[in-house]
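Structural prep section.
Before we set up the soaks we want a predicted structure of the protein with EPU in place, mainly to decide which crystallisation condition to try first. Input record follows.
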Amino acid sequence: MTALAPAPVMTAADLAAELGALLAPASVLRRNEPLAKRTTLRVGGPAELYVEPADEAELAQVLRFCHEHDVSFFLLGRGSNLLIRDGGIRGIVIHLGAPAFSHIEVDGEQLRCGAGAKLKDIALTAKRHSLGGLEFLEGIPGNLGGALRMNAGAMNGWTFEAVESLRFMDYTGVAHERAARDVETTYRSCPLLKSAVALGAVLQGRPAPREQIEAKLAECQQRRWTSQPKEPSAGCIFKNTKAAPAGKLVDELGLKGTRVGGAVVSGIHGNFIINDGTATARDVLALIEVIRTAARAARGIELETEVEIVGED
Ligand code: EPU
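Run finished without errors. Recording the tokens verbatim:
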């Protein structure tokens, strides 16, 4: 994402025509693409322009185009930690959905994976090759690019724990590879990927008996199914705080079941807001504020959203 605003002289139609002329036919370019269906929460407006570059060279074209024309862009992963406002996203939404970005290649104890690879597929490929240490990825409903960007975690593991090296493209379209030890990461963040696009990573597995990996996968699945809701959601809405896990706090405040329009605080886990099928982004945002206000008033705790909130009202 860039903070740059679109140049006022270029309309979406102009942008589409110019960019379309640069891209190969194998790349996808659409105007007014609905995005709600591309997020797990299922709310939000459309993308002004939506692009699926066919490969890295095409992605470089798109990034250079945005750079040269001062057009803002947003990288859409699997949309599992994302809240798009009802007015949609201006500028260009890029999705690395093409097969060129979703490879998973096993080489000894390492897996070289593209940013578009699903975390579940990575965990299952590792299992097939008797490589452990990546079981926790199975339950995160995203792709590798998003998980790298937010250093996603579950079941006491987090993404960068397993990363050996990172490939990324800067906003001028140049690709780089960097050892993970040289990449700064924190709880739920990889600052480098706030101004670069993740292309993929080499993940390090640990040889382990297949039955042991299967048992760990089953344990992760079981814990998730019993402690997290199945309805559409964006995963955990808030980051955990030093004082308490956000879900526990919401629970203690008696906010489970609280509703704004079609958005409801899950009765199963307090840090999930679920969409009953009729929610708008505005409902979810209003419910987030209800929770933040209550946490502040009752416990003096400032809850910070974990979910990424983007787009126009
Ligand atoms: N708890 C309650 N009530 C609730 C929810 C939780 O009392 O309604 C208590 C639990 O009993 C537990 C503690 O709070 O003692 C923590 O809950 P949990 O074990 O469910 O973990 P969490 O900290 O809420 C984190 C991640 C999840 C990840 C799970 C499982 C964050 C913000 N969340 O949740 O990640 O799936 O661990 O490993 O760090 C996400 O990132 O979107 C996400 C869902």
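Observations: The chain has seven helices and 19 strands.
Flagged for discussion at group meeting.
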